[in-house]
Amino acid sequence: MTSRDRSAHAADPVQDLVDAVRLYRDAESSMRSQSRDSMHLGRTDMTALRVMLRAGQAGRPLSAAALSRELGISTAATTVLVDRLEQSGHAERRRSATDGRVIEVWPTAATEREVRATMGTMHERMMQIASALPPEDSRTIHRFLVALGRAMTELDFPATGTAGTVTPSP
Predict the structure, then answer these.
(1) 123 shares a domain with 142
(2) Best label site of 20, 106, 130, 159, fewest CB within 10 Å?
(3) Residue 170 burial by CB count (10 A; 0-12/13-18/19+): exposed, middle or buried?
(4) What are phi and psi for residue 20, nearest 5 degrees?
(5) Model's pTM, two decimal places?
């Protein structure tokens, strides 16, 4: 890239924004990978713990079937996942307090503390940065990120493995 190309690129606010999104995505991916590594967990395991923590905070504990639906994996794979999380001390099965026939899946107290310690700092930093923005900027960035998220989830990947077109959202 020549110096003329660099200066033209630096003056392109759209390219700068896309580059900033990529920078954030790479940093977040690295942080999540380090967090999984420190807890000795795989990606699906960590995702399952986040789903269980969120459900517990919302007062709606998860059955294995509900966890399976949330993760988009089979019930058999969920059973193996929960067994693995139990064996590693990250999750436990409990009988439902409201329906004794139902078994719920919960993160252990130690895991809750570990995830909060790891992810809490990230969350606090995100909240500090977001709260420093003027409300109009927050609304604009929110619209941008929601639209970007939709564009990514609506990508059509044909069997050839190449990305297709984005389906316009209503």
Answers:
(1) no
(2) 159
(3) exposed
(4) -65, -40
(5) 0.64
